[in-house]
Design brief:
mainly beta; Lipocalin; eight-stranded antiparallel barrel; 58% strand; elongated
Amino acid sequence: MATTKWAIDPTHSEIGFKVKHMMFSNVSGKFDDFTAEAITEGDDFENAEFDFSAEASSVNTGNADRDNHLKTADFFGVEEDAKITFRSTSFKKNSDDDYTLIGDLSIKGNTKPVTLDVEFGGIAKDPWGNTKAGFSATGKLNRKDFGLTWNAALETGGVLVSEEVKLVIDVQFVRA
């Protein structure tokens, strides 16, 4: 079977996250500058290989002061380690549109395995004749595993920023 390359369509994709703030509400963010590709044998994507890279400095939470703090050594340390990368090690089909993606995520020089639940939206041609494939992925990670350890204690108990980060990813790939 022939190998097919797929490139991410960044205008129809979002790499996002949510973090609990003050232990009672979520703050959302995303990365504005990223790239990804997939390599498949066939159109069902089973056993596909995924590679992803984001510029840590492109973090965007909608608040410039918070974004600037996230770029410092307290969090992403963009001066020392500018890229966040992910390389898949496994992509297994569980049912028609349900997959499990496992891979190595690297942030601030720390690489750890991450598991994502993936919904495959399907394949279709856009109005310009491009073949597109859509995916939604979710998962969780502990930010401290990746060296993002800054926090502040609250007077009422607890901490300002949760250790758990929820990943919320919606992407379209276009057949190269």
